[in-house]
Design goal:
Length: 478
């Protein structure tokens, strides 16, 4: 009886063993795109069997990895269950590229050189480079049929540029650079935004981020610095200073506030060097953590704004391109300058008329003289020099009309635009800069005799919001 029971148990164990050994599983091997590559290794395998999987890329494509992150190809697996493996393929980088673009601070001029350096996936230079030059004063360049083994390139432009802030060609050359994936677009521009974010992109790629993700993050971080709350999807290399669109306005605004204005013949030759130093310092500060921490740099940009005449800048750009025979759209850069100011400095909320202000741009406190726009001041000593000075809140305008024997010194205009001027009878001026002092010298006239004038204030209004009469004694000779 015991013998029969033992025989039965052994028989059952043998049956279970046979059943276990005969268990089969299905291995499915496929491709993320059959046109890019095929696979082998699919089939039915006994439990514990070894399956060999292989990914075979098509011409001009390459194998990246399997869906479980394994990169071995071919690879072997032990079959223990029904399972699916997917091979991921991608198009080989590189190829033949043709593209066009512009180099812009203001626009670079004829003769500027363009260099294209091929980069590997870590943004290291491979040693292969190509050159071209700008053949038009609007900064345009093109390269045709260059062969590269990578899609990634560093573009550099070196040359003279039109300084839109002072309305002159630069006295020295500067260099601007841009990273680009040449497989993405046939239009690649080089500008101050691509230049300053370059080092930040390098930092992020060095930390293991892909080029596309690093570029996207760096561009978002810099838009935060500019005070732009609704980020643009356009890459910085797609932006132009003379095209419609808010993203182009953002570029032009930053290009403008980088440049210190000056009409001093001893200072103008130094402006390109100062611009290069400022961009380098901004780029270095931004590279580490995507933030500009140096308040000195921010204050430099704010000071540039406080000295600039935005209406003149707009007109200078338009006239420059008109002389080239081109009709261009100057985008609304003024609103993005205001956004930068709002993000980085205390803003006034009402119209301010300081008691005194400098006669000339850049002069210190010793050059301050009385301001005839102080609302509760109506009596003046006409033998003195005076100014019309004000600070306008962001996104508001101030217009002032003076009717009487008052003469403007328009050669020393610091922030006003003359709308109308009837010499010795009346003038109308308007602020062109917000949240910063605007000032212009005036003379009270009347051949050493008493005089008077009516002053009308249009504070963001088409009708006068305040009117006063001023009088003076001993006016200047008219």
């Amino acid at each position: 009886m015991e013998t029969n029971r033992l025989t039965f148990i052994l028989a059952m164990i043998g049956l279970l063993a046979v059943t276990s050994c005969s268990k089969e599983y299905t291995v499915t091997v496929n491709s993320n795109n059959e046109a890019w590559g095929t696979t082998t290794g699919s089939g039915t395998y006994a439990s514990g069997a070894t399956a060999t999987l292989a990914a075979v890329p098509s011409e001009n494509y390459y194998f990246i990895k399997w869906n479980d992150e394994v990169t071995d190809n071919p690879r072997t697996v032990i079959v223990t269950e029904d399972i699916t493996y997917t091979a991921y393929f991608a198009e080989n980088p590189g190829g033949t590229f043709s593209f066009i673009g512009k180099v812009q601070k203001g626009p670079f001029v004829t003769g500027a050189t363009i260099t294209v350096n091929e980069l590997n996936e870590n943004l290291g230079q491979t040693g292969k480079s190509f050159t071209s030059s700008i053949t038009s004063d609007d900064g345009s360049f093109s390269l045709s049929n260059i062969e590269m083994e990578s899609d990634l390139a560093l573009l550099s432009g070196n040359g003279f540029y039109f300084n839109e802030v002072i309305g002159q060609l630069s006295s020295a050359q500067i260099t601007l650079q841009a990273f680009a994936d040449l497989s993405k677009d046939e239009n690649v521009n080089i500008n101050v935004l691509t230049h300053i974010t370059k080092a930040r992109i390098e930092t992020l790629v060095g930390e293991g981020m892909s080029f596309s993700d690093a570029k996207r993050q760096a561009e978002a971080e810099f838009q935060d610095f500019l005070g732009v709350t609704e980020h643009f999807d356009q890459g910085f290399e797609q932006m132009s200073i003379v095209s419609e669109g808010d993203f182009n306005a953002m570029l032009l605004a930053f290009s403008i506030i980088l440049q210190m204005p000056s009409n001093n013949i001893s200072v103008i030759p130094t402006l390109p060097a100062e611009l290069t130093a400022l961009m380098t310092n901004l780029s270095t500060d931004f590279a580490a953590d995507g933030v500009i921490n140096d308040e000195t740099l921010v204050n430099t940009l704010l000071n540039n704004i406080s000295l600039q005449n935005q209406v003149y800048i707009r007109n200078r750009l338009r006239n420059y391109y008109s002389e080239l025979g081109q009709t261009v759209e100057i985008p609304d850069f003024e609103s993005y300058i205001a956004q930068f100011q709002a993000a980085h400095q205390e803003t006034v909320t009402e119209f301010v008329y300081p008691d005194k202000a400098p006669l000339f741009s850049g002069y210190g406190p010793g050059a301050e003289v009385p301001n005839i726009l102080v609302k509760d001041e109506t009596q003046f000593d006409g033998t003195q020099a005076f100014v019309v000075a004000a600070i306008t809140p962001l996104r508001k305008k101030l217009r002032v009309k003076v009717t009487g024997n008052v003469e403007l010194d328009g050669s020393q205009n610091n922030g006003w635009v003359v709308i109308d001027y009837d010499y010795e009878n009346s003038f109308t001026i308007e602020t062109q800069r917000e949240n910063a002092l605007v000032s212009m010298p005036v003379l009270l006239l009347r051949n050493n005799k008493d005089g008077s004038a009516i002053v009308e204030y249009y504070e963001d209004s088409d009708t006068p919001t305040f009117t006063k009469q001023i009088t003076w004694t001993g006016g200047w000779m008219d």
